[in-house]
Specification:
heterodimer; A: mainly beta; 5-stranded antiparallel beta sheet; 39% strand; B: Rna Polymerase Sigma Factor, Chain: A; 11 helices; transmembrane helix (chain A)
Chain lengths: 413, 190
C-alpha cells in the first residue's frame, strides 16, 4: 500500500463516516441565543474595563509618560521611544486598536520570521533561514529551531551559519528565558523507549549552569510554558497534565492542580497563570494566577474578564485579552497588574465592521508590548505602550494562504 | 447589533437592517450547516460535541457577520473558528472534566450506522490521532483543501501540515501491518 492508496482510503472512510450525520438542525434562534450569551459576556467585560481602566490606566499613563520624558535616555539597544502624543481613551475606557493610520515606530526589539522570504529578522538585521521554522532562538554559538518533521516536532540544532548540526524529536514549543541565557525545550530519549524529557539548558556561551532535565509522562508530547523562577520551570502535556519542574538536590516534578491549563509563568516572581474554569456555552473561561511557593491549588486572584498570556520580564504585568477567541484570536489586547489582576491598559478594535484580532503578543521590554494584529485580510506588528500609544513596527501584510510573519521565539499556538 | 441586543432600542431602520442581515445569515446557515456538521463530527468524533461545536462556531460567526465583508471568505472564516474552538486547550480541558464527571448523558444515546458492532478500524485509528493532527487529516483529505489552506486555518506552517499528514499516513501504514482488516475494508469497496 502506498501513500496514494492510504489517502484514498482515508478520504473514503471520512466521507462514508460523515455522510449520514444529520443531528438536530439548528435554527436561527438557537444560534442567536448562544450568540447573545457570548455577547452578554463580552459586554460585561467591556463594562468592567470602562470602570477600572479609567481609574487605573490614566494615572499609569501619566507616570509612564513622565518617566520617559524626565528620566535617563533608554539604553542604546532599546527601541527608540515613540514621540507620538498620548491618546485619550474612549468612553469605554479603552484605546483604539487598528493597524491602519498608525505612526511608524522603531524596528521591533524582538526577532520575527518572514514566511515567504524564509528570513529571520533580528534587531541586528535579517538572517536567511534554511526554512521558515516555526520557532528559532539563539543557542550557544548557533541556533535552536523547531520544525515539523516526518515524525512530529523536531528540535533542529544549527550552527552560526544556519547549517543543521543535528535534530531530535521535540515538543510543542521552545521557550527562552527573559535574558536569553537559558532555553526550555522537550525531547524524546531514544535510549529509553517512550521516555520524554523537559530540558532547561544554558543557551548563552559561557553561562555557567549545567543542563537540567525532568521526566515527563512516558510517550507524551510536551508543551514547555516557561520559567517560574531561577530553579523552576512549567510545562504541560498535550493530554492536559500540568507540571512544575523543580531543580533542587533531587530534581523532581510537582503536578499543578489549580488549573485546566497553564498559559504563562514568570521567571521574575514565580507566578503561574492559566485557566481555572471553562464555560462551553459561552466559549470562554475564567483565568487565575497562582503562586506555587504558597499553593499549587489556590489562586492569588481570578478573573472571568480576561484570558492571560505572558508575564512581563519584571513580573509586574501580564498580557491579557478578552477570554473569547474566534478564528484569529482574542479581539483585543490588555495589560493587567500581575499582583492584583487590575487592568492597566486595554485596546479595543476601532473598526466595528471589520474582524480585528490579536493573533499573538509578547513583551518587547517590561513596559512595551509587541502584538501581531489581524484586521480584515491584513496583518501587521504593532507596538503598544502602557499609556495607550500604538504604533506600527512592520509593514502591512496580506493574509493569503500562508501566515506572513510570526514571533521567532514564542510558540505559535 | 450589540446595542440592539442589549438595550432593546430598535428603530425602524435598525429592524430592517437586522432583518436583512438575519435573512442573509439564515440562508448561509441553512446552506452550510450540514457540511459544517459533518466536518465537526469528523473533528470531534461524536454528534453531541459536533452539534455543540457547530452552534458555538455559528454563534461567533453571527456576531462577526457584518465584519466579514468578503462573502467568499465566510467558509474559511467559520472553518477556522470551528477548528480553533475544537483545538482549544481550554475546551479540551473542559471536555475532559465533563467526561470524567459523566455529564454527557446524550452522548451515550448517540448511535450511527457504523456503531452496530462494525466500527471501522480506520475510523478508530482517526480517533486516536491528536486533535491538531486529526484536523490536518480532516481538512486535507475530507475537505480537500490544499496544504497551504490547511496551514492558514490551523495557524501552522506548510511544513508542519506536510509532516503531520505524512506522519498520520505512516502510522496508518504501520497499523495495516498489524490489522490487515483495515486495508481490506478499503479494498473490498473498490
Amino acid at each position: 500500500m502506498n501513500d496514494f492508496d492510504e489517502r484514498d482510503l482515508l478520504t473514503r472512510e471520512l466521507r462514508d463516516r460523515s455522510q449520514d450525520v444529520g443531528g438536530h438542525p439548528l435554527g436561527l434562534d438557537h444560534v442567536r441565543t448562544r450568540a447573545r450569551r457570548i455577547q452578554r459576556r463580552r459586554n460585561a467585560v467591556a463594562g468592567t474595563v470602562a470602570a477600572v481602566v479609567l481609574a487605573v490606566a490614566v494615572p499609569t499613563a501619566l507616570s509612564v509618560t513622565d518617566a520617559t520624558r524626565n528620566g535617563a535616555p533608554p539604553p542604546a539597544d532599546q527601541p527608540t521611544p515613540s514621540v507620538t502624543e498620548t491618546p485619550t481613551p474612549g468612553p469605554d475606557g479603552t484605546f483604539p486598536l487598528s493597524i491602519k493610520d498608525l505612526p511608524r515606530g522603531a524596528e521591533p526589539g524582538v526577532s520575527y520570521v518572514l514566511n515567504a522570504e524564509k528570513t529571520l529578522v533580528t534587531p541586528d538585521g535579517p538572517v536567511d533561514l534554511p526554512e521558515a521554522y516555526s520557532q528559532i532562538t539563539p543557542y550557544l554559538d548557533g541556533w535552536l529551531a523547531l520544525a515539523g518533521g516526518e515524525n512530529g516536532y523536531e528540535n533542529v540544532f544549527l550552527d552560526a551559519d544556519m547549517d543543521v548540526e543535528r535534530t531530535t524529536l521535540g515538543g510543542a514549543g521552545i521557550v527562552p528565558n527573559a535574558d536569553g541565557t537559558r532555553v526550555l525545550y522537550s525531547e524524546r530519549d531514544f535510549n529509553v523507549a517512550g521516555r520524554t524529557v523537559v530540558v532547561d539548558a544554558p543557551s548563552e556561551p559561557g553561562y555557567e549552569r549545567e543542563p537540567i532535565s525532568w521526566d515527563a509522562p512516558r510517550g507524551s508530547t510536551v508543551a514547555p510554558v516557561g520559567f517560574a523562577g531561577e530553579d523552576t520551570v512549567a510545562f504541560s502535556t498535550e493530554d492536559g497534565e500540568l507540571f512544575l519542574g523543580v531543580d533542587d538536590a533531587d530534581p523532581h516534578t510537582v503536578p499543578l492542580q489549580g488549573f485546566l491549563g497553564i498559559s504563562a509563568a514568570s521567571e521574575a516572581n514565580g507566578l503561574v497563570a492559566g485557566m481555572v474554569s471553562y464555560d462551553d456555552m459561552e466559549g470562554a473561561g475564567c483565568y487565575g494566577v497562582l503562586d506555587p511557593a504558597v499553593s499549587t491549588t489556590d489562586t492569588v486572584w481570578d478573573t472571568c474578564d480576561y484570558a492571560l498570556f505572558e508575564f512581563s520580564p519584571d513580573g509586574r504585568f501580564v498580557i491579557a485579552g478578552p477570554p473569547q477567541f474566534d478564528g484569529y484570536g482574542p479581539s483585543g489586547l490588555a495589560v493587567l497588574d500581575a499582583a492584583s489582576g487590575d487592568p492597566v491598559v486595554e485596546f479595543s478594535p476601532s473598526a466595528k465592521r471589520t474582524v480585528t484580532a490579536v493573533s499573538n503578543a509578547v513583551w518587547e521590554d517590561s513596559d512595551t508590548v509587541l502584538a501581531l494584529v489581524v484586521e480584515g485580510d491584513e496583518t501587521r506588528m504593532v507596538r503598544a505602550e502602557l499609556d495607550g500609544r500604538l504604533e506600527a513596527v512592520t509593514d502591512t501584510y496580506s493574509i493569503g494562504m500562508n501566515l506572513p510573519l510570526w514571533f521567532a521565539d514564542r510558540p505559535r499556538s | 447589533m450589540e446595542c440592539l441586543v442589549e438595550t432593546g432600542v430598535v428603530t425602524r431602520m435598525d429592524r430592517a437592517t437586522t432583518s436583512t442581515r438575519d435573512a442573509e445569515f439564515e440562508e448561509y446557515m441553512a446552506a452550510r450547516q450540514p457540511s459544517l456538521l459533518r466536518t465537526a463530527y469528523l473533528l470531534t468524533g461524536d454528534r453531541h460535541s459536533a452539534e455543540d461545536l457547530v452552534q458555538t462556531s455559528l454563534a461567533k460567526l453571527y456576531l462577526s457577520w457584518d465584519k466579514v465583508q468578503k462573502r467568499e471568505l465566510l467558509d474559511g472564516y467559520v472553518r477556522r473558528i470551528m477548528v480553533n474552538e475544537n483545538n482549544s486547550l481550554w475546551r479540551r480541558a473542559w471536555k475532559r472534566k465533563e467526561v470524567t464527571t459523566d455529564e454527557l448523558p446524550e452522548q451515550a444515546h448517540v448511535t450511527d450506522r457504523h456503531d452496530h458492532g462494525e466500527r471501522s478500524a480506520l475510523w478508530d485509528f482517526v480517533q486516536t490521532l491528536p486533535r491538531k493532527q486529526r484536523a490536518v487529516i480532516v481538512l486535507r483529505y475530507y475537505e480537500d483543501l490544499t496544504e497551504a489552506e490547511v496551514a492558514d486555518i490551523l495557524g501552522i506552517s506548510v511544513g508542519t501540515v506536510k509532516s503531520q499528514a505524512s506522519r498520520a499516513l505512516a502510522s496508518m501504514r504501520q497499523r495495516v501491518h498489524t490489522q490487515p482488516m483495515l486495508a481490506r475494508d478499503g479494498e473490498e469497496e473498490r
